[in-house]
Structure prediction request, 299 residues.
Amino acid sequence: MISDMGKLCKLIYSFSLTEGKNETRLPYLSIYFSTQRKADMPQTENFYIYLVLDGSVRLFTQSGIMDYMPGQFSVSKIDTPASGHVLTFSEHGNFLALVIELTLHDVISVLLDMDGSLAEQIANSELDSVQMAMADKNVITSVCRLFSIMDEPVQLAFMGKHIKREIAFFILCSSCGSQFLQRVVNIQQAWEIYEINSWIKENFRDSFTVEELAKKKNMSVSLFHQKFKNAVGMAPLQCQKRLRLTEARRLMLDENKNVTEASLEVGYESVSQFIRDYCKIFSLKPKEDILNLRSQLEK
Prediction:
């Protein structure tokens, strides 16, 4: 009996796929296809689920590096990837992933429709491991149902909205549901902070001060700093530093940049400071870390 993952892959491979992002009839659902080591990442401010289907990938995030195998998914706004590197290709010689975008309204409307104390259980991490594992699988089952009606425009137009809500529900009940819910709450309370966080992601190579960021939102420095840390989970300059170091790590691993080149490219003026910061975040000096990562890729 073919699993839902097997059915889903078979359905998707029936499409005529091109390198990079492939749009579907549903604006919130995209197929990412790659024959290159660099995996394209979504460019969107919405929440999104990055579901690995065939092959495996290493995602570089502010918090570190995470590897994902077929059937596993990453949820943005928990740890939004800055870049991705394909670890293994499928038997077809490619890497395949799906991206499902969800708006804040999508998630909140599902939360409001939950019965009883389910939202509270999710928030308090009280769902048991069996429930969460089933929800993880149900995400894939729901996506499989979407693709099974992709050639039925009338049915898809109606069912697409309902299945999207199903997916949001299962994500909230999944193994990363508690973190996801916390991000939703934080965004509701501090949307303007996330606008600044997006600005930092685009400008992390440049020098700026917390005072300049606070001024953009007409806040005092202390209030801005507190709101930012509550919403994002770290201070503004710490966020910038992590983005710089994560990008430098990618440059050294994917583009063979040396330590000096990578540090300068991400905005460091002092190579020695770069090495000190790198060791604090990744626990190894840059050269040692990259050698270690490459040895893992070759296994």
Observations:
- The two ends are 31 Å apart (CA to CA).
- The chain has a mean pLDDT of 87.
- Residues 129-148 form the longest helix (20 residues).
